[in-house]
Design a protein that fits this description.
It is built from 2 helices and no strands. The chain has about 170 residues and is mostly helical. The termini are far apart. The mean pLDDT is about 85. The longest helix has about 140 residues. The protein has one domain. The chain is about 95% helix and about 0% strand. It is rod-shaped.
Length: about 170
Amino acid sequence: MDKLGIEPTLLAAQVVNFLVIIFVLQKLLYKPILTMLEKRRREIADGVELTAKLKDEEEKLIVKQEKALNKAREDALAIIEDAKKQAKEVEKELLAEAHVQAAAIIARAKQEAEETHKSSKKAIAGEAIDLAVVMAKRLLSSVMGAKEQHALISKRVKDLESWAAREEKKS
């Protein structure tokens, strides 16, 4: 070994120094660094796992939200349909009530027109009788005496009244 320029004592001292440095580095440096690296690896793995869980939960929440939105849309459409049905029913009821009221108004108007017609007929008949009496008095005063005039007028008035009564019964 001397030929190679290696001194055994120096080599042994360097080997011992190297082993001491490895031991010291192992205890003081490598072990804490490896522990820290392992801890960091676990944290990263936990973070990745947590991210995967959160992503799954997010997808579940999105599906749940879509279901809730679809349900809300269906409920809203059902409410709208119900409101349309109720509106149609109310419209039918209002139309029926309007028809009933219109029929009542028409019936009242017909009755009033009939009553007006009857009262007009009576009034016209009364005026016609009065006019006939006046005309008969004027005509007969020159031709007949008072007693004969009175008898003739009374007879004709009764005839006119019976005619008016018959006409009233017809209508």
